[in-house]
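hey so i finally got around to running the thing on that chain from the lab meeting. sorry it took forever, my laptop kept dying and i had to restart like 3 times. anyway pasting the input first so we r on the same page abt which one it is
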Amino acid sequence: MSSRDYEMRARAESVTATRWRILRSVLDLATERLTVEVTLDDVAARAGVSVRTVLRHFGDRERLLDAAFEAAAADIIAERLAPADDPTRAIAVLVDHYERRGDLVLRLLAQEENPRIGPAMATGRLVHREWVVNVFGTALPGGMQEQEAVIDLLVVATDVYAWKLLRRDRGLGRVVVEARILALTAAVLADAREGKSE
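ok and heres what got predicted. didnt touch it at all, straight out
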């Protein structure tokens, strides 16, 4: 590799690293405050760059927010990947995800009326429902109506608000929260097997 190729590669890696640092700063700030309160000055300071650098990478604040939410969505899907039909492992993966992103998601849910945030939250609900079907699929009862009722209950039992109630409101430890969510899902499935979930 020539010194010119090396310099170009190093420059490209530096640009990519700066871009990710800026996006991470947006997401960190969005966990701490409402997105309308996240300024370019704050993002630049958190990322250790100038506002001009932020604008050079993203153009304006709106495109910066869009890029940050898009990056977060991709990370969330990857973080939530869990083995199908292994609820114990899947709940552990989910609680790990909530430990990393739960506060951000809760803050975004509080801003759902924002036209930039609302569609992302609607997509998140669909993704979570699909996750439930993937994880608990073989344990679901036979009929469509029965399945929908059980899926609804499992969605509630594994929702970020369940994590919030146990972890943030009750102050329970991560391991206890995981055990409680697993107990909730087991109870829902046990009731379904006995025909009590309709």
